[in-house]
Amino acid sequence: MDGMILPIILGVLAGIAIGFMIFKSMEKSKGKKMLDGTRKEAATILKEAKIDADSVKKDKILQAKEKFIELKSEHEKVILSREKKISDVEKRIRDRESKVASEVDKNKRLNQSLESKEKDYNFKLDFLEKKEGDLDKMHKRHVDMLEQISGLSADEAKKELVTSLKDEAKSEAMAFVQTSVEEAKLTAEQEARKIILGTIQRVGVEQAVENCVSVFNLESDDVKGRIIGREGRNIRAIESATGVEIIVDDTPDAIILSCFDPIRREIARLSLHKLVTDGRIHPARIEEVVKKTEKQITQEIIEVGKRTVIDLGIHGLHPELIKTVGRMKYRSSYGQNLLQHSREVSNLCGIMASEMGLNAKLAKRAGLLHDIGKVPETESELPHALLGMQWAEKYGEKAEVCNAIGAHHDEIEMKSLLSPIVQVCDAISGARPGARRQVLDSYIQRLKDLEEIAFGFTGVQKAYAIQAGRELRVMVESGKVNDTKAAELSFNISQKIQNDMTYPGQVKVTVIRETRAVNVAK
User: Fold this and answer.
1) pTM for this structure?
2) What percent of the chain has pLDDT above 90?
């Protein structure tokens, strides 16, 4: 068995060796074929690469030639432009050279002509000097002859001639001056008349005359009883709160409000209107409505002032001055409404200033503010013109405006042309027939003086002159004035009025002392 295996193994090994040799020979033949194929492929790639390299080389050579041609053409252009510039410069230089040469020739000719003229001038100068010497000799000879004939020296004759000429010139100048002054006076007077008449004709303002009573219309006479109240408490409360006398008479459907102060009268009228419309009329409600109406009137005063300055085209006015202008609506001067008067004076001043070639806006400003001193919140001893000037200075108005306000009644010196314009326009507005009434103004002043006398005593809270000045109603502070002092105060005020004032008839002094206790239930 073992002897059989060995030959089999040897046979297998021999078969494997033969197979390996066959495989090796096949691999060699296959590798040779692959090597031959690779060599052929490499030869083909080299051939194609050579062909591509030749084509690339040709392209690059062509591009290089084109670039060279392009650069050559650009270089030629640059050279041509430089040559052109050089030729232009050479041409300019040649032109300048020719111009300089012509200028040189011209200067040469001028020099030659100047030399010839100088020779002529020197010749003529010598000739004139000789002639001048001859003339001097002849003049001296003639002067000597004249001195011998007249018996006067040359200086004496000159002085006499100058004196006679001076006298003649003085007389002629005086005559000319006199004629010019007379013509100027006549012309100035005519021009001034034209300006004033033209100004007056161009302004037409309705004149408003102030009254001291206002009629309050009612829907029916039944309302009168509600206004009077139980035992007259409502009407007394209204009179005490407003300082206006309420007259209830037989006039159908109307009651009369009487007071010299238009602001008080307007407050009373509006308060009554609100009370009657609302229907609740009692003392507490009356005081509440009166206070609200006072605030409303204050706001209305400001609105009136704003509308006035806007209508007149005046800008930049201080708010306090605007408020003062609004208060003019409720003031009168000799029966003439102060706001209407000031508006008229403002328009007149603007027109007159424009006619004279001055600042019309500044003139209108001075005309509107010229009487602001007539509406002080507290009484002052200063004249209204000076008081108004102080207010204008305080609130930053210009010096010309302040001077025009202060000088319109000649209380200070006028320093600008606006001052006489304001004075003239104030006179034009006030002097118009029917514009003013002296009696009304003196009457209002008397009522103001009555109230001022009452305020001069200690403890007086309110004072109202009513019934056209026939009664002075005084409200006192209950803490400072007792019942005994109230009677004494009434007597002292009546004596003061009797000694210091002049008035028709009698003045009744009523002192009212009221005590209130108020608590709130929460």
Assistant:
1) 0.46
2) 1
